[in-house]
Amino acid sequence: MPILNNLMQQLVNGLALGSIYALIALGYTMVYGIIGMINFAYGEIFMFGAYAGLVLALTNYVNVYVALLGATFITMVLGVVIERVAYRPLRRSSRLSALISAIGVSFFLSSLMVRVKGPNTRGFPTLFENRIFEIGDFQITIYQIVIIGVAGLLMLSLHLFVTYSKMGRAMRACAQDQDAASLMGVNIDRVISVTFAIGSGLAGAAGVLAGIYFNAVQPYMGLLAGLKAFAAAVLGGIGSIPGAMIGGLVIGLTEILGVTVNLSEYKDAFAFAILILVLLFKPSGIMGRKANKKV
C-alpha cells in the first residue's frame, strides 16, 4: 500500500520536526503562563544551543549525550542571565517595554554569534551513524528515533517536574496568582529564574537536535524556528504546557504534509496561516482557557 507507507513516512518526518518546535514552544508558554510576557529571544537561545552543541561536538571524546547535556546547561545559564539583565528590571513596566527588550536581546544574540562565528552556515559533525531501518517500504532513521525519543523524554520529565515537585507546585501557584503565592511564602524571583532556565534549556536541547537532523547551523536559524514555535504555543493555548507540545507537533506535521502535496515553496507560511486562523476563531488555543479579568 504505497499511499499508506508514504503517509506513515511523512508522519514520522513531521513528528521529528514537530518535536523540535514543541521544545521551543514550551519556553514561550511557561514564561507567559507565569509572568504574562512573550520572550521572543527563545529562537536565538535555540540557535545558541545549536552552536554550543557544535563546539562541544568538535571536541575530542564528546558523544551526542555530552553535547546535548552541555548545550542544555549552557543555555540554562544564558536564560537566567537574560532574565536578570533584560527582563527583571522591566517586570513592573508595561508589556510593550518587555517586548521591546525581548526583541533587542534577540538581535543582540544573533549579531553576537555572527561576530564570533561568522555569518556562514556550518556543518554539524556526525556524532553517530545515521542508520536506516526499513519496515516494508516504510523507513525511519536513527536520527529521527533519537530526536523523537529525546524530545519525548524531556517533555515527560517537564510534566513530572511541574506536577509533582515542590518547585513545580510553586510555578503553578505563581501562574494562578503571584500575589497570593508570595503571601504563602513562594519566592517569586526564584520561580521566574527557574522557569527561564528550564525553557532556555529545552530550547538549547532543541538546537542540538536540529543541528543533528539538518546537519547545519547558522546565526539566523533561530528567527524562523522561534516564530513557528510561537505559532505552536498560540495554537496549543499560550500558557498551557500540554498545549505547547500538541501545537508543536501539529505545526511540524502540517509543514511536512504541505511539502508532500508539492507546496514546498509555501511550507514556512503554513505555521502563520494556522496562527491567523487560531487568533480569528479560537484565540485561547486548543487547550487554553479564557482569561478572567480581576475587578
Automatic annotation (TrEMBL):
The keyword DNA-binding does not apply. GO terms for molecular function: L-isoleucine transmembrane transporter activity; L-leucine transmembrane transporter activity; L-phenylalanine transmembrane transporter activity; L-valine transmembrane transporter activity. GO terms for cellular component: plasma membrane. The lineage of its organism: Bacteria, Bacillati, Bacillota, Clostridia, Eubacteriales. It is found in: Cell membrane. Its main location: membrane. CDD domains: TM_PBP1_LivH_like. GO terms for biological process: D-alanine transmembrane transport; L-alanine transport; L-isoleucine import across plasma membrane. The chain crosses the membrane at residues 12-33, 64-86, 98-118, 138-162, 191-214, 269-288. Signal peptide: none annotated. Belongs to the binding-protein-dependent transport system permease family. LivHM subfamily. This is Amino acid/amide ABC transporter membrane protein 1, HAAT family (TC 3.A.1.4.-). The keyword Ribonucleoprotein does not apply. It is a multi-pass membrane protein.
